[in-house]
């Protein structure tokens, strides 16, 4: 560090001295109490700012000591606006002799990926279709209304209950994919509008916390399948995943009641998907099953159980089919493209697959460009496959059925 230059200001004050840093120096600042990161060759000290970061302090901390340029561009729909928050945190720049990428990453691959992103922007692939999302919300509301009408006209017989349970489970699953769109800021041009609608959809249609979702899900996107950084694979007290984690668990003594039976070959045992809560505000009020005497018909409680069972399994299998069969390991400090491709695979495209998975069958494109509206993933897919082929990066795509089987395997 320590080479200086003159940096002029607009206030008439004496020019500040530019500090230059090497990657060796920057990589030392990756501690909980000392966090630096690099964006477009500029060095920022985010130690104090991390606790105020809207996306949560952990996601920004996971990039400490690294080049965070691609992650920064991936998560923010208006980088120019965010720059005003970064300006006070600026402490210097990379030394002139230092490469733009850290840890011997392939500079040409990184540059080609950024060119690809610019091409996607020029093709307007980051602009959402109001008609698509309006129709999508409309079909969710239509299913909720249909369930209401069934109860009104046919009562709560077992057959009616089973049918409306399937309808409401479907609407809940689709509402889950819709909140995912708003959470990733991929619908409106302004972040604030996305946040407002996201809180409504996930809070009132799903019964979950928007902040909780943001703080966990963005960590997953920043460091997919990375131990201690991706919450989705950081549940050692419940189950272990991949080839490396079981071996590490064996070396770490745990309380007796937390020990899980591990095969001698070190492979993982995965528990069945857990049920997750959901909110059916249009049909079954929360109190109707918390207070049994108030339930007009005993079939409503089984209905809620069936809805929970169907929707939670739908959610778990779809969200994990793209990641669980892929590489799960410790941090390897790959470039953005390579890290996402190692942990992510696609499911073959079809009208049903697109609808059933909420376009998460295009998981690769979604992970590379989280703020891109999902109806444009198919347009950028050929560009991504071409870039991967150029550098020998595996682009894995499989049928839906095989994806489910691979989870069990």
UniProtKB/TrEMBL annotation:
Pathway-wise, it operates in: Lipid metabolism; polyunsaturated fatty acid biosynthesis
Q: What is its main location?
A: membrane
Output the Pfam families linked to this UniProt entry: Cyt-b5 (PF00173), FA_desaturase (PF00487)
- Where does the Cytochrome b5 heme-binding domain lie? 18-95
Q: Name one GO cellular component term.
A: membrane
Looking up InterPro entries in the UniProt record yields: Cyt_B5-like_heme/steroid-bd, Cyt_B5-like_heme/steroid_sf, FA_desaturase_dom, Fatty_acid_desaturase
Q: Name one GO molecular function term.
A: oxidoreductase activity, acting on paired donors, with oxidation of a pair of donors resulting in the reduction of molecular oxygen to two molecules of water
Q: Which PROSITE patterns match?
A: CYTOCHROME_B5_2 (PS50255)
UniProt KW keywords:
Fatty acid biosynthesis, Fatty acid metabolism, Lipid biosynthesis, Lipid metabolism, Membrane, Oxidoreductase, Transmembrane, Transmembrane helix
Give the membrane topology, semicolon-separated if more than one: Multi-pass membrane protein
* Compartment list: Membrane
What the entry lists under CDD domains is as follows:
Delta6-FADS-like
Q: Which GO terms are recorded in the biological process aspect for this UniProt protein?
A: unsaturated fatty acid biosynthetic process
Instruction: Report the sequence similarity comment from the record.
Output: Belongs to the fatty acid desaturase type 1 family.
The record's annotation in PANTHER family points to: ACYL-COA 6-DESATURASE (PTHR19353:SF12), FATTY ACID DESATURASE 2 (PTHR19353)
How is this protein named in the record?
A: FADS2 desaturase
Read off the lineage from the record. Eukaryota, Metazoa, Chordata, Craniata, Vertebrata
